[in-house]
Design goal:
The protein has 450 residues and is α+β, with helices and mostly antiparallel strands. It is built from 15 helices and 13 strands.
Length: 450
Amino acid sequence: MKASLFFLVLASLVSPVIATAANEAGEVRTVTLRNGLRIVLAPDSAAATADVTVWYLAGTRYEREGLSGITHLCERLMFRGSKTYGPGEHLRLLHAEGATVSTFTTADFSSFYQTLPPAAIDLALSLEADRMGSLVLRQADLDAERAVAHEENRRLAASSQVIVGMQQLLGAAFRGGPYALPPVGRDADLARITLQDAKAYWSGRYGPNNAVLTVVGRFDPDRTLAAARKAFEPIPRRRVPPAPARNAAGQPAARFVTRPFAGTSPTLLAGWRALADGDPDAPAVEVLARLLAGGPGARLSRALGGKDGSEAYVVQGGVDARQEAGLLYAFAVFPPGADSARVQSAVRSEAARLATEAVTPEALARAERQVESTTLFLMQGSRGKARALGAGWVLAGDPRAIEGRLARLRGLTPADVQRVAARVLDADRLVLVWMPATGAPANAEGEGRP
């Protein structure tokens, strides 16, 4: 599971039938079709490719209790064929055109994308519209994808201590809520999902009025809009059920979790429940992550990196941004025999310093440059721009949200960062996951205080 990268959906379009807006600065045009499908067109004459992506408000925060993983199953079933195209044809036809095709699911949305030569845009629109309107769901396909999901869970459980630890950290930070769940789902829930469950979930969450279509890169916007209308507008609007009535962020966090892990390098993960992705202070949280654990010069790297090499091998951190609440996290991997108490004390001490002492202008400028350069790098190319526009719409209600985010980042002061640190890096928000190395598989798990 990858930390989210500033995902963005325009909610307030003017007309209930058709609304169009243009932004001259970025040539971004937004349109809403009669069936509720929202379209973002961002042509770029300098691009070599185009990117066609459909974003659905479908993720773990929309799954009913006991049906975790149903979004991931539907994500895979979307490639199993529709009334017009047979199983696997979506991939086969687009690969034949030289396209890169993939999908990913987060807690807040699912995204289906294809980056391709401009001449293949109409084909991609036709394929996406066909599975939006007439996906065929079969019991045999559900059983096959369920088996794949079980295997994915098995592999995740045996993967690196950081991956396993991050899931433990999310589970503790957001316990009892859907944000605590892995996108793949729990094995017990996967086993109970029926074909009727899958059909109902697909019908409610994968319709045009619960989706955003982004087209980015080299294309003619008028011609492409006409092709999109032809492909998607005949699909009827569908009823979208309300999200389950539960807090996505769950209950107050568990403070400390011990999860032994096979291997020789003990690992500590620390996390603080942070702000919603659209919060005006969200850029300051990203800066805090850089200051705390964003490289060799970061606070934790200095505090835990002994000159003789006896301390942390690796110290890294970041922000897992989500619609209702995020997670600022850091992790460190140590040599055998590391002192758990000392490590935990260092984490608490450095977090408290950020909340009580203003950072220097030089340190702030360095962290801002790191965040900005990473953001701009991730926006390169048709795929990167599509990711920013689409995720901005689905998470912040604005396809251009990233621009405002960068402007707020550039305007931060040391006082802003200290204020947000006091808000986020509170001791009561801290979750620690300690993973002692056992050298042998271990499934013991405990919860309590250190």
